[in-house]
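User: I want to check something. If I give you two sequences, will you return the structure for each one separately, not as a complex?

Assistant: Yes, each is folded on its own. Here is the first sequence with its structure:
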Amino acid sequence: MSSIYRNENAKKAVLELYDRQLEALGIPFKDIYVETSFGSTHLIECGDMDKKPLLVFHGGNATTAYNLKYCDFLLPHFHIYAVDTIGHPGKSAEVSLSPYNQDYGKWAGEVIRQLGYEKLACFGGSFGAGVLVKTMCAAPETVERSVLLVPSAIKNALSIKSINMMFPMIMYYITHKEKWFRKCLLPMAVEEKNISEDILITARCSIDNAKIKSIMPQDEKESELKKYRSPVLVMAAEKDCLFPAHKVLPRARKVWKQCDTYMLEGRGHMNELTEKEKEMIVEFLK
């Protein structure tokens, strides 16, 4: 099986950053492994064990350790299972699944069942939200309710919209200069201030050491999306170059009559949630 890492030293670098970021959270946690037909899957169990269980999916080419810092507002309110997406940087099996079919959804449905649940509330952002969309199509009965933040797989922008990230990425590979790396991220961040040090460290580590997933989970057919009939909150960003609100939200409302939608005004794919928006997510998931 081909590794998702460039070499053994690269794998070591990714996992060392993973462990450092997890420890830096300063929270009690437990490592869990479950077996699926796609391969072994690692999860971090944390949060309040007496609260409602919640399955959390991280973004593409990022890690659960980084994502937990971004989603730390969920920790006091839920018993969290934060999953390492299979085939991505982290501690799950190095099995790359197709973004075109529903394999990610079948995998996630198996994870939920292997954890001992018939269904779980779920939260995902970006690529992770796309994995969750695939789950809502492939195994809708396993998702009790869901929050999709800047999600893929509903109405992705044309790939040409992200072409302005390609040249800076090529220049970064050639020169390894910081300025080109920042320019690569800027179309997603909209403003420099949205590129935090944590984002830089995590993204650079993945790009330098792992074979990145450049293709996001692709749009599902209307008939497939309609299989999901439980509550769903879709939050899309106005200036998102990958999954723009003006495309994502109307389609979400069309396919899910039970859907709540919210636009992150003035923001791009990389963004910070307001306290009010964090409270909205928590209350919806409860």
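And separately, the second sequence with its own structure:
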Amino acid sequence: MFKKAFFICFIFIINTYANLLQDAIDSSPAGSTLKLSAGIYKGSITITKPINIIGKEDGVIIEGEGRGNIITIKSSHVKLKNLTITNSGSRLDTMDSAVFINNAKHVNIDNCTIKNSLFGVFLDNVHNSAIQNSTVSSNAESIGFRGDALRLWFSHNNTIQNNKFIKSRDIVLMRSNDNNISKNYMQECRYAIFTQHSKNITVIDNVLKDNAVGIFLEASRDINVSSNSIKGHHGAQTSLGILLKAASNIHVEKNNIAECNQALYIDNSPKVRDTKNWILDNKIIYSTKGLNFKNYSVKNVIKRNELFGNMDNVMSDSRSGLTNQNEVESNYWDDYEGFDVNRDNIGDTPHKKYLYLDALLVKNPELGFFYGSTALSMLNFLLKIAPFIQPVFLVEDKKPIFKKS
């Protein structure tokens, strides 16, 4: 803790640009506020003390030299606000960033625009900090050669809120716990949100559009994914809405997932013994595959979801996935073929899903070229009437909802 007097606000208004910003930072007492007038300030600056750098009007630009980081922060209690930060280096091996923060707490980036940079904001061992109300985009390279809009590495208890992440590579949390990602807009990225070996994450009220993968949770646990709008990249064959890979105790609730190649892909999840995943009250619509299971994916609780407009509501990439061991109940399926004689809005017979000719795709992926074709659909229909191969039993919903809400 700093003494109260330590935070007496020293305010400096800088009106000259050139290369004086670093000098002003170095000469200012800890806890000072530097208010910058509109203009271009030389980047490649390093902050090693508590300080606020605020643009007092529009047009405050901190421009890098096209190499290395633009702003490096190595102190707690730093705030950047109302700044445009541009032109970092372009080396992936050194992860050149617009803002690189290392071993710090209580850093706040607010209402900043980051552009033409490889990585946007890199948090390395940074805690109790916030990225908010900002817009981050990468360079003009193809998606594989861009850096991440945001990367958290061993960084905990941070808030990522009300930002726009556009045309970058990924928003990544690696071994980073207790973080909140809410009310952000993410478009044309590779992995809009990617967690790896992380836990206690909330992903709430975000809009994800035209990304290769919306939310990818790998080897992570105790994550709440709720009330997000996820729309896939129209026409893309690799577009995924939510992907669970070896992920445990995941709550996927009240999301709208639409226009994906695979809306919800469950791969070897849950992974941790004696845990479940909870997939509740989602709309999974207008996708090629609604629910797709791979490998040993059981103990998923799938209830009160609406699945309609999909080419297939349920599929499996593995004959040994044991998908029928999941707890599936009270979902609406637009391909349900039963009746509701007593009008209680629950189907009189269970909804059972089998793979017929589609089962050949599991062992013969090259047949995927014909997936959805008229000929394959006709053969699949005939097999339902007179099966000459053993179908694969996928799921059973004993209480299917008859009419969607």
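Because they were folded independently, the notes below concern the second chain alone. The helical segments are 20-27, 360-363, 374-385. Residues 1-18 have pLDDT under 50 and may be disordered.
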